[in-house]
Amino acid sequence: MGNIQLSELLIDITLMPLVAFLVGLLLVLMMRKVRARIERRIGPPFLQPIYDIVKLYAKKTQISHGYMQDIAVMMLLGGYIASEIFLPVPGMDGLAAEGDLLTLMYLLMVPMLGMALGVGQCANPNGSIGISRALSSMLAYDIPFVIVVTGAAISYGSTNLVQIVAIQQQSGWGLFSMPLLALAGIISMYAMLGKEPFEIYVAPAEIATGPMVEMSGKYMGSLFIMQCFQLYTVGVLYTTLFLGGGVSWLTFLPKIFAVVLIAVSITNVFGRYRTEDVIRWMWKWPTGIALIGLAVVMW
Length: 299
Prior knowledge:
0% strand, single chain, 12 helices
């Protein structure tokens, strides 16, 4: 590897997580603003997400359950940070060309498993109930998500995300060539966010915020940062698979915000399902739609 290539890779490794974090902050702000408007409130100021992070990290961490909780936080953030490096974005797709959808799928499972390890160290019953629900939710949305990824890979003839974007820019968006997979994909990726009606593992009215019940100070701040990365990752992944990516940030960012906006709008008009309802609904509708879409693609 030449010096120029190495310098480009170092820039990608440094800048891509930073860009993801900054865009994620804007997505969090948009999510709060939309909820406020629907509820006829003004909503938070522009810099409120940054204020929240600074406030949480400035607070003293009241509860710490040892090194496993610290490792869990590293897995929470590390899984998403590694995912950002392999997502193709305008002007920074050097490492994305080396990874593929399979790599990304494995990386997206790391944060939830990290949360399970950290909550298990806490031994709080509310946290244990929350994480068991979270793992059940992951099982529910992973099945249609895997089918969607499989169908997209078959349709494009590649699992390389950079090539998938190039194919769509030449022959049209995947949203139009495989609409059933695109529909199942937006549902399963929305379920990854854990918002209503899929907010079964937080459930503050039932289990006192679940996995977050033992989190305070820097741990809660890390979870907030994870949410920024989570929103960005879902928006970019769906845009890459079905909306043709983006030649420039001027065309790329509106697509990301549109994907997250759809999820946020649904969140504010639906109540929360029970755990068994989430599993039953995810395995019935998005999985069924994804299987039909897969059959159409293979046929």
